Request: fold
Amino acid sequence: MSSEKKYEEYAYVLDFVPRGKSSIIRGREGPIVQAIGEDRLILLELLAMENKEFEIGEKVKIGREGREKIISVLGRLKYEELTPEAKNSLPQVVEIIVKQNEKKYVSYFNELQPITPRLHALELIPGIGKTFTRQILEVREKQPFVSFDDIQQRVGLREPAKLIAKRIVEEISENPRITIFVKR
Reply:
């Protein structure tokens, strides 16, 4: 994988509170955006510029350069600190991220390895059991997968992007022992 970047360049909006209070910086008030980083899938609290509107699922620039709607990244959020709206929108927004970064997530189907002799990393993705894992391994050996459609057509796995999104939400919300997608 690429060298570890310290900061996210982009985040996707989970919720927007025009008159919010920061849950990270005491006494900080203003337009607060709860978002998820595109690259490392970290939950973030952002301070937005006044009089800007945000759509759920909107991609916003949060990197050092070229911010248009965000003043600053206030910090990382825990899943428990998300608003009910942010928790609600998390599955759809994660699915948007997965589809926008299809190459990256398809590569997991080509690269994931066994975790233990009895458990393959692929099996941690909801909907993929031993049978699908075996099929995926056989098929990817002949030729790597190139897209979600490719996976769906060659292995019969329905909506792989949705399944990956579901696993990412589990990794964010349930803090499992083993994570595939979310960097701790």
Summary: The first helix runs from residue 84 to 100. The chain has two domains: 10-81, 101-174. The two ends are 16 Å apart (CA to CA).
